[in-house]
Protein: Tripartite tricarboxylate transporter substrate binding protein
Amino acid sequence: MPRTLSRKQFLRAAALLGATTLLPLPQAWADAYPARPVKLVVPFAPGGNTDVLARMVAQGLSESLGQPVIVENISGANGSIGASRVASAANDGYTLLFGTAGTQAINQSLYKNLSEKNLGDFEYVALVTTIPNVLVVNETRTPARTVKDLVARAAAQKTGMSYGSPGSGSTVHLSGELFKSATQLDMVHVPYKGSAPALTDLLGGQIDFIFENVTPALPFVQSGKLKALAVTSEQRLPALPDVPTMKESGYPTFVTGTWNGVLAPKGTPAAIVKRLEEATLKVAGHADFKSKVTALGGEVRLLDSKAFREFTRAEYQRWNAIVQTAKLERQ
Structure:
């Protein structure tokens, strides 16, 4: 004779059945994701190397995910405004950040309303590229052929040699501060609102040198309008094979530059982060993507979610030390 369940037993059985039914849901979410267009926030103005690379990644992700991935530029405060916007967005995988060394590892040491805790406001999807800097001069104003020449000239000047940057707190600015510290010479930082005006003044002979990101500086070097003295990468770049590294030029620990990776708001389901991680690494690992990044003077560097998080933590500590040495005032 069939057993009759009490109401209490029935409710307990129903709860267990419900829990069992819910277990696969995270994977189901991932399988259904994305069901609508995804937004990739670039925390800088259109046209820069971060924007160019983000659009390349977005195009690849659109094809891989089967939904449009739309780039939105939200600039200001060295990328902090755009990054903060993403950190406070819904953690459903539909708003992502194309983060940089500035947004994820430098700004925390420069802005009073940010802190090391800001690093935990995101899920780290994948690192895709690194963009080193290149030390460039206008030989008409600064007739130097090597880093050694530049240092000798700076030492001989009675007034401080000037170096430009696209803004305070950028890797370009901090590379200049690192050079100043390494040489123990008097140098003057001249900040601009972007790479274009900084390079324009360098071409016009208004400043002495810049540790510019390779991407915007490369056309001027290739055309002979600017002289590249050294690159700040670990090894020489395919785009500038005859230009030595800063390490080769006598500064063995001088490795700087920015980098780019995809991030999501904290709390984004792990299954969705995994889906994005796999898609992003696939896009950035494609031969066509690699060739385009190389042509821009960058390097493809693939790190999965866990390795990207660890990398960012190490980068924060490294850049924080540079900021502290330069005694930069928090804004």
Remarks:
- The chain has two domains: 38-131+257-326, 132-249.
